[in-house]
């Protein structure tokens, strides 16, 4: 058992597997908890992030069957940092292929933060009958306004000017007016050292704006070449292509109506600079029966105390059909 500030502890995975999903890509997946438990799908962020044992901490192993997988090109999936055959549509299809492979009739809960919230919503809209409930954190829908806020010259750049200047000045002066395109060119360079060096700077900016209070230990990830390459290359690939989505696709009325019957909990840091809170508000308004919880002292990271506590609380009670009364949106 766990109180809202204590993680659940799982035994070792009861299943670890590899699932080919194309001629190029093979997914790595792991299952934890109760083999006949309520199936939970955890979707990692990024694009280009990965899953780890720590992701199981939100889910009671006596109740849940927890499924983790690394998306195409990410984590232990192969080939690493591969951009070919890697789009949102491919990733949504992979979730359904994985569900069938694991012989899961329906996901009891789909749980995703940041880019994981994007995939959660896309999957639910594509397969609404396969999702019992959603818990979403740090809402991201890949709109131009969101990308401009986090990586353009107005938004996060005005809040972290010194970090943004370092991010921009890494590039030759002639390329600084085409920031994302110039970084992408470096990240797909044939030269390995060029790719890794650019990836470190791309991710340094991400890490600089990820929390309300600085977390210097997070920057240790910059020494992991495999992580920096996958995270930066896949982020740049998806951002350059608008997530392979139509503008405002996820928040369109007809798409939200497809999932309006799914119980949805939204948890959003008030000072999230990576995924601007406006998107969480827009999603909540488009899903009038959803629950939105603002964390008043948090940025983007799920490890910030208020966000972490609410994620534990809502995951803990997601198996119960009964709900206490609540305001449609509230400050934690």
From TrEMBL:
It is an enzyme of class 3 (hydrolase). Residues 38-303 form the AB hydrolase-1 domain. The active site is at 114 (nucleophile), 272, 300 (proton donor). GO terms for cellular component: cytoplasm. Residues 294-332 are annotated as: Disordered. Residues 316-332 have a biased composition (Basic residues). The keyword Cytoplasm applies. It comes from the Eukaryota. Its main location: cytoplasm. It holds the Pfam family Abhydrolase_1. One of its GO terms (molecular function) is aminopeptidase activity. Keywords: Aminopeptidase, Cytoplasm, Hydrolase, Protease. It catalyses: Release of N-terminal proline from a peptide. It is found in: Cytoplasm. InterPro entries: AB_hydrolase_1 (IPR000073), AB_hydrolase_fold (IPR029058), Peptidase_S33 (IPR002410), Pro_iminopeptidase (IPR005944). Gene3D superfamilies: alpha/beta hydrolase. Belongs to the peptidase S33 family. This is Proline iminopeptidase. It comes from Penicillium rubens (strain ATCC 28089 / DSM 1075 / NRRL 1951 / Wisconsin 54-1255) (Penicillium chrysogenum).
């Amino acid at each position: 058992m766990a109180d809202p500030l204590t993680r659940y502890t799982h035994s070792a995975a009861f299943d670890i597997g590899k699932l080919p999903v194309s001629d190029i890509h093979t997914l790595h997946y792991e299952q934890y908890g109760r083999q006949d438990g309520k199936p939970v799908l955890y979707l990692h962020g990024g694009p280009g992030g990965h899953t780890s044992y720590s992701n199981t901490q939100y889910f009671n192993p006596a109740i849940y069957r927890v499924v983790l997988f690394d998306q195409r090109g990410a984590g232990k999936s192969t080939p690493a940092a591969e951009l070919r055959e890697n789009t949102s549509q491919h990733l949504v299809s992979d979730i359904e292929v994985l569900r069938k492979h694991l012989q899961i009739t329906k996901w009891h809960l789909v749980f995703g933060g940041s880019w994981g919230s994007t995939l959660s919503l896309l999957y639910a809209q594509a397969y609404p009958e396969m999702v019992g409930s959603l818990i979403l954190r740090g809402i991201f829908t890949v709109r131009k306004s969101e990308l401009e806020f986090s990586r353009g010259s107005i938004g996060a750049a005005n809040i972290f000017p010194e970090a943004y200047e370092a991010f921009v000045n890494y590039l030759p002066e002639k390329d600084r007016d085409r920031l994302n395109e110039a970084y992408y060119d470096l990240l797909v360079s044939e030269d390995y050292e060029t790719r890794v060096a650019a990836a470190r700077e791309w991710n340094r900016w991400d890490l600089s704006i990820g929390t309300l209070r600085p977390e210097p230990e997070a920057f240790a990830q910059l020494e992991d070449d495999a992580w920096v390459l996958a995270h930066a290359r896949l982020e740049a690939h998806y951002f350059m292509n608008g997530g392979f989505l139509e503008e405002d696709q996820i928040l369109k009325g007809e798409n939200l109506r497809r999932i309006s019957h799914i119980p949805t909990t939204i948890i959003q840091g008030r000072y999230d600079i990576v995924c601007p809170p406006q998107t969480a508000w827009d999603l909540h308004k488009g899903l009038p029966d959803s629950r939105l919880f603002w964390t008043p002292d948090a940025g983007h990271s799920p490890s910030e105390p208020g966000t972490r506590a609410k994620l534990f609380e809502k995951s803990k009670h997601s198996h119960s059909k009964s709900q206490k009364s609540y305001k449609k949106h509230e400050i934690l």
